[in-house]
Every structure is written in structure tokens, then in C-alpha cells.
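Review form for a predicted model. The reviewer records the input and the model, then writes brief findings.
Reviewer: anonymous (R2)
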Amino acid sequence: MLVRVRIAERLPVQFRVLYRQFLLRVVDLEALSMQADVPRLLGQFAGVLILISVLQAIGFLFMVGLLGGRPGASTALPLYVLQKALSLISGTMLIVGLVTVVSWDTIFPDRRDAMVLGTLPVKPGTILCAKLAASGALLGVAVVALNFGLGTVLPIVTGGSLLGILRAVLAWWFTMAAATVFLYGAVLAVQGWTALMLPRRVFLRLSAVLQLALFALLLTAWIFQPNIPNLVERAEIGALAGHWPACWFLCLMLQLDGKLPAEHAWMAQRAWIAVALSIAGAGSSLLLCYFRTMKRTVEEPDLLPGGRTRWLSLRWGDSLRTAIVQFSARSLARSKQHRVVYAFFLAITFAIAVSTVQGVVRIRAVRPLTEDFLMPTLAMMCLAIVGLRSIFSLPVSLKANWVLQVTQLRPSEEYIAATRRALLVMSAGPVWLVVAALSLCFRPWHAVAEHLIVLGLVGWILTEASLIGVSKIPFACSYLPGKTNIQYMFWAFAVVFVPIAMGLAHEEMLAFHQSRRFAALAAALASLAVGLWAWNRRAARSERHHIAAAGERRGGRSGNL
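Model under review:
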């Protein structure tokens, strides 16, 4: 601790101050209440990853003991260890990539840096080093937490002697650091050179698409990664594994540990080349952005200029419903803050959809519906609705709270109905259409239609449940997320929703062959949806009467004065 304090004291004061500020800005402070504790938020994030890593380590040790006592352990056990190592490397790279994409634009200079720090005697190099140190600290917490359990057990199992264990541990952590630097630098290079080559206005429009595309690319690479046992059995390591960076870094780890076969040395060389190129690309783009184009960021708006979008001009009901749906869609498309938060939920939904498509493509034949298809589709619906509802409470601008609250022209129940329409159009509807497209590969048709009916009712129920307690329109209300606990939300979803979805999928399977049972299930879901709808409508009407009574009381007090 004393050594750490002495090292910190030797750093420049400007760097230390900026490092603390940039570390807190990793999470957008404008979306947090004054009571929110960002270090505690990061600690909760690390706690979830540590718990996942410990559970993986326990399962790994159990399987190692199980495989070690079976015949043919000399072949099965090394393949299993390699597969777990590849899985952990790819999972670490996925987390690093997602954290980097989520912290989009936090490394490159923004308008606040140019207007505040640009007028102070602070060198651009100091700002750049402080931002890199803050982002590196966040990535370090994520990598260490995810490799806390399994990343420690794997080298011990494969090391053998004490010297071998030490070498395996050093090889493992160096590989994790190299993979982190590669993916982090690759994302920065793509973003930086895109910002340098394109006009500022074009880059601002393309930034949202590029961010979501990187999310999709990272998840697709993680889902479709090769399987080590299958590669060995089919002798396809040169044709398939050569295209996956996770396989490159697995070979790099084996090379550092002295266990890489000579015929696979070229894959380790690809890892070294990839790290060098990512460092060069990210470093050059960062230097050019800070020392050449930093002043151009002063003109960057809080919200991107909107273009003419045909589908937004469609009518979604009456004038109020259409206005709120269009306002919500434009706010989500133009606001970087809301887009990043919703991208998390979209990424998980996309991963589930891609994994489902992968299973359908592998079969290459029409097959009956199973619980393996019903359960993921229900999870997709839940994540899409809950994710969109979670960002509805984040205001686009603090001015929107006052402007839109003092201009209420219609009863509250009409605003709730318009918010319901926005949720259905932007979350439940697209997911239902995606599931309908995936259902074309299943038979019989009546079972597919019944599942789509159930999924639509579940989407309606989730929409009504998310509207309980809502009294304002999306993106125009204040929110205090300082009381939200990420760990509780994560495990509540796993403990509460997953068993309910599993039970509902099982009940669906039984109801597919019994028309009366399906009718009873659909009636129960419809009754629950209608009940929640009536509850929200009654709550909106009571709130309108409460507001009117409060206005009369204020008017009476003014008259008495």
C-alpha cells in the first residue's frame, strides 16, 4: 500500500485529477442521481463476474475429476482443458469488446474536453494518458474478475511441477493482457480512423450504426467459435480456427507455455501480428484525434440532427400516439446515452436469436417445436421490453422534464396508452416478427400459430407490467437510479423469470396436443393482460383526479391570500 501511494504521488497532479474524473465518467453521470455511487456500481459489476468465474472453476474441477477416472482420460482430459481455455479466452475477449463498445466515445475528445480543458494549461497528451489509464483500469477489473476462478485453476491443472505452474500462470495472464490490448486497440482503431476519414456530420450519423454493428460482430464471433474436439476429430484446425482470434491467442498461450506443436506456430504468429497492428492503428488514430481534430469536436451536438425517415412518418394511431412513438424512436436513434444502454439488451437478444438460427441451420430440415426453441423466444421478448422500458425513464435532456410536464393537454390515461403503443411498436412487435420468421422451419403449423399467440400475450403482459407506476411520457422524466442494485436485478432475473419461462414453455408443449388445455392457457394469459391493462388505466385516472384536486387546493390557498 505504501509503495502504491509513493508511486501515485510521483505522478503529475493534473494526471491524477483527470484520471479520477475520467474513471467516474466511464458511466455517464448525467444518467445517475446525485446519490449514485459509481465505484460501488463498478464493484457490483466485478462481483457478478467473480461469482461467474468461481462457479466455472467449480464445474471445471468437477469435470476434471470425473474425466480423470474414466478410460481414455489421456485423450479426453487434454481436449476438455483446451476447450475450457478457448472458452475462457473468447469470453474474456467478448467482455472486453462489449465494455469497449459500451464506453464508446469516452476515449476520444468530446465537446466538454475541448471547451473546458482546452482553455486550461493542460496538454492534450496528459488528457489522452488519463483517459487511457481510466479505461485500462475498468478493463483490468473486468479481466481480473472474469479470470479470478477458472483463470487460476486452469494453469494449476496444466502446470504439473511448481516451475511449470509458475510458467503456465505467467503465460495465461500475459495472453489475457495481449488479447485485451488487441481487441481494445482494434475497436479504437476502427472508431478513430472512421472519425478521421469521414466528415464530422457523417460520422455522427454513422456512429450509432457502427456501434451496433460491432456489438453484433462480437456476439456472432463468440457464438460461432469453433469447438476444439470437433476440430481435432475433423482435422479442420487450419481451415476454421485460423479465422478466429480466440484460437490465435490460445496458440499464443501454448507457445509461451512451451506446449504448442510446431505445425500450429503460424497461429501464434498471427496473435503477435494482430496485437502489433491494433496498437499501431489505435495509437495513430488517437494521436491524430487529440493533436489535429480536437477543436472540431466543439461543434458536436448533444443529439444528432435528424433526417427524413419514412417509417417514422407513419401513423401509429391518433395524433398523440403517433407523436410519442415518433419522439421515442427519434430519441433512441439520436441519443448516444440511451442507445448504449439499450444496445446491451439488444446484444443479448441478438445472441439468443443467432444461436437459435444456428441450431435451425445445422438441422437443415423441418422439425417439430421443442422447449429449446420456446424458452429462448420468451427470453427475447422479456429482454427487449425490459430493456426499452429501462431507458424510457432516462430523460433526453433535463429541460424536457419541465417543457413536457407543463404542456400536458390530454388526460393521463391517453399518455399511458401512447407509451404502451411505443413499447409494442419498438420492442414487442419486432421480436414477434423475428420469432415468426424463425418459426417457418417448424411444424405443425397449428403449433407454430399457438406459440405465436402465446408469445404475443406474454409481450402484452410484460408491456402492461412495465407500465405499472408510469405517469409520464418516455425520455421526458427524471430518474433516480442510485437505489438500483445491479446484482439484485441480475439474480432476480435468473431466479424469477427463468423458472417462470421454463414452466410456461413446458405448459405450451403439453397444450399443443390438447386444444382445451391451450384454450385455458390462452384465456389465463389474456385475463392477466386485461387485468393489468385495467389496473394501469384506473391508476392513470386516479392520478388525474389527484392532480386536479391538488390544483384546486393550490387555487383555494391563493384565493384566501
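Findings: The chain has two domains: 41-300, 319-548.
Further findings: The chain has 20 helices and two strands.
Recommendation: see findings above.
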